[in-house]
Each structure stands twice: as C-alpha cells, then as structure tokens.
Amino acid sequence: MDTMNLLKKSYMDAGISPEVYDYCHGISSRMKDRFAQIDQVAELNQIKVLRAMQKNRVSAACFESSTGYGYDDLGRETLEAVYADVFRAESALVRPQLTCGTHALTVALSAMLRPGDELLSPVGRPYDTLEGVIGTREVNPPGSLKEFGISYRQVDLLPDGSFDFERIKNKAIEQLKAGKPLLGKDGAFAPLLESILNAALEGEMDAHLSEDERMSGNRRNGKMQKQVQTSMGEVTVSTPRDRNSTFDPQFIKKRETILAEGVADRIIGLYALGNSTREISDWMEENLGNRVSAETISSITDRVLPEIKAWRSRSLDYIYPIVWMDAIHYKVMDERGCAITHAIYNVLAIDKDGRKDLLGMYISKNEGANFWLNVLTDLQNRGVHDILIACVDGLRGFPDAIQSVFPDTIVQLCIVHQIRNSIKYVGSKHQKEFLKDLKRVYGAVSKDAAETELLDLDQKWGEKYPIVIKSWQDNWEKLTEYFQFTSDIRRMIYTTNTVEGYHRQIRKVTKNKGVFPNDTALEKLVYLAYRNIRKKWTMPLANWGTIAQQLAIKFGDRFKLL
Fold it and tell me: Residue 244: phi, psi to the nearest 5?
C-alpha cells in the first residue's frame, strides 16, 4: 500500500469518513500553490534578515547586558543597523525598552494626564531632568507636559522632611471647588479624600441646622455610613442625620454611590468592549483599589437604557437608497431558566449622503410576515416613506411584508448566501467544477446572458443536483434584480456583506458571552457595541457621488439629489 492510501486508511480508522477526507484533501490541494507562495515569501524575508545580520556582524557580544541608558550599546546599535538594511532605510531607531528612570516617569505621566489636568508634587521641587519633562524650566525640551496643557503646582516638605498635610489639604479643596479631577489612587490626596468629603458633609449639616431649625427642636441624630466610588477608589463617608429627617445633602446626594462620573463612564466603556463583570471588577481593584459587585455594574450600565429607548424611537429620513437586513443570533435565558435562541434583526442603511446608519435592531425568537410587517411599519411610523433597494438573506415572510408597506422597493436576495446554500448539496468532488459553472450565471453581463447560463447549468447538473437548480429557478427574479444596475451598485447590493461586516464587529464584543440573562442585557451590550462602531461612520462611502447620480437617473423623482 502506498503512503497516500495508507494515510487515508489511518484517517478512516480514526473515524474520519471518506467524504470528509476527500473534501479536506481537495481544499488542501487547491491551496497548495498559495501555501507554497507564502513559504517562498517567508523564506525570502528570512534570507534578508540573515544577510543583514551577516553584513552587520551580529555576534554573541550583541546579546550581552547593556548600560540601560542607551550609550555605547553595541547590541542596540547593531539591531538598528539590521533593521535599516532589511527595510532598505538609511538608518533606524529601535528602542524596545525604557532607557532610564526619567524615561519611565515620562511615559507614566504622559499616559495618565490629559490636557486640563494639574500635576501636584507634595514633596517639593522635582529633580532637574524631570523639570524639563514637566515644563517648569525657562527653556523646556519639545513635548513637555506644559506644552500639552497640563499645569503644575507643588507643596514643599516641612523642615523636618515630613509632608505638609495642611497645605496639601488646602490644595485638594481648591481643586474640588474648581471642578478639577483628583489624581489617581496613588496620588498625594488619596489619604485625605475621605476626611475632605466628610468635612464637606458636616459643613452642609451645620448650614442646614439654622437658628430656626434649632428653635423648632431639630438636632443632629447620628450618622449613616456608606461606600462611595471615586476616581481615587472606594471611600467611606459618614452622612450626618437630623431628627426631623429634613437634611438633604447636595455634595454627596442620598443613595449616590458614584462621586466621579468618570468612574461610571469607564465602567460603561469597559462593558461596551465586551469585558465581563469579573474583568471590570478586576480593573476597579487594580486601578482604584476596590472591587464592585455584578449588581453595581449592572445598575451603572442600566444608565444607557433611556438612551436606547430614545434611539429606538428617533425620527428617520424620508428615503433611504439602500437598506440591508440580516440577523445575528444569541442564547438568552427564558422564564423557565432554559437557554433559547433569540435573533437580533438589524436594519442597516445608506442615507442620501452615502453614510451608514443603523435604523433599528429588533429582537425576536422567530421571523415571519407578521414580524417583518411590524418592523417595516415601525420604520414607516418614524418617518421612512421610501426604500429604493432592500438587500436580504432569504428572510421568511419579508417579501410579502415589504410589498404591503413599501410596494415600490426592489428586493435583492443575497447571491453569496444562495451560493453557500447551494454548495452544501453538491458532492465534494464536483464542487470546484460546479462553482466554476455557477460563476458564469451570477457573473454574467446581463440578466438575459445569466438566464442562458442557468439553462446550460441545468442541462449539465440538473439531473445530478435537481434541488440546487430548482432553488435558483424559484428565486430567480429576486436573485437577479442587481443586473439592472451599473457595476458600482451591483457590488453593493448583490450580497449582504455590508451588514455582515457590521455583525463581525459586534461579535468581537459579544464572543465571550455564553448566555444572556434576558433580552434587556442582550440589547444593552449590543447597543453599547454599536455606539462605539458608529463613531467611525462619519464619511460617505467611496465613490458615492457617482453612485448617487446613477440612482437618481434610475429612480427619477423618487431620489432627487437637489
């Protein structure tokens, strides 16, 4: 038995069916030339690196320890020469590590501070080179903190070398009154923040217990402690109480647990990136010194729910030239505690200016004419009066529903999905040849030419794969609408890749979510992910000016540019 047959038999013995083996072997064979090309490119680049290392005499000495300051470092200088030769540059600068303490402090300060922030030194004047980084010299190097709008103040140490806590406290109060954020949890204010907050509450209570209040018999009545999240971590505040329960603190309101909105915004931001409650809590502990519960995180992220409600009911444009509709599926717990599949049906559109816009997302367990009637009616009630072209993936009940709401809309079924569904029913040994023949159908220059190619396809493959051919024949009118448009528009509408590309971005955020507890949790995360994605939808599609003119000619009064 030759090696190939022995290998195949080994796979059969391992439980791999002959069909699967032939299918995979066929793919490997078809990709052989491509893999060989990749190997050649890799080998060529490897030779380039080796030649550069030879040329620059890379030796064991280049891998010895360095001074750390970047001076007379043979290894680093040789590495940079290798980079320059490989990339055909005159020279190169490669600094893969921090070179000194000042470099490390510069990176740290630049990462933490933002324009408008203030850096406070509680230990007096910094050393000379750090002064240049901060920008307190008469002549500062380029890129100082001062240059980027970061101010600086300092509190000198006492004569005995200890902290001047009174002056530090006063500086902190000044910053609070000015509305400036405090520094991080490791800053000089962290140990004082709790006393500052409690002092402010005591001052409010003193103001509340006016002479009239006291005359009426109102007095202090103990304190109530609670944990409050701040930009510097979790602190314990003691809110004073009065006998009449009329004290309403404003500095830290009743039931307020987040003093710094930046903390809540960061939690929502981390949640929107797909981080779990555990990961968010870990971040809180690492950066702010304390953990938060899943219930607290859920409560904070619920702040977006009113925004979602407003977004779902917002007014839409009168007309959208192109709309794509497709679904993305998730597991959601039902009232019995069982995981069931729910779909989010997304309606992604291009507006008159050529910009993407998500018109809506609709959660449903199943689709049908009634479901799509509700979706399309919702769009109509929010201002949509016309859709020129709708691109869909064989959505059940959609053609009937859209005819009743937008009867003039052209419905184009996704060619790519039709191809994928077809190839599932074609034997692996015929797939390559069948796809080649099928390409002549959907790649034809006109609908008439495509019909001729479909007849040829039927003649050749109809007897062997009748279901596949019948599927194309049954859906022919909806599959071939794109033939009436120019190539620019054809590329946009013959597939739902536009909305699928959006779904791929959503999945990057939701991929680690196994089962959602309810539809609200699902909608909340998907919306937050969409909110980040739409920040990039600021520019019109490439070549939109030409496409818009073509649509205006095609649809006349329905799509006027001016």
Answer: -85, -5
What is the full DSSP assignment across 333-344?
E-TTS-EEEEEE
Give the pLDDT of residue 382. Answer: 93
Q: Are strands 356-364 and 233-242 parallel, antiparallel or unpaired?
A: unpaired
Q: Quote the tokens at residue 17.
A: 């069916």
DSSP per residue, 404-439? HH-TT-EEEE-HHHHHHHHHTTS-HHHHHHHHHHHH
Residue 539: strand, helix, or coil: coil
Structure tokens at 490: 């054809």
pTM for this entry: 0.55
The answer to whether 365 and 344 have CB atoms below 8 angstroms apart is: no
Which residues have CB under 8 Å from 497's CB, separation 6+? 416
Coil, strand or helix at 236: strand
* pLDDT digits 0-9 by tens, 287-298: 655 566 667 677
pLDDT, tens only, 152-181: 888 787 777 766 667 766 766 666 556 554
Token pair 């995360």: residue: 525
Cα-based distances in Å from 154 to 126, 138, 352, 383: 9, 17, 56, 58
Q: Quick one: which of 483, 502, 503 has its CA closest to 494?
A: 483
* CA separation for the pair 242, 202 (Å, rounded): 12
Radius of gyration of the chain (CA): 33
Please say whether the beta carbons of 268 and 528 come within 8 A: yes
Instruction: With a cut of 80, say whether residue 534 has pLDDT above it.
Output: yes
- The SS3 assignment for 377 reads helix
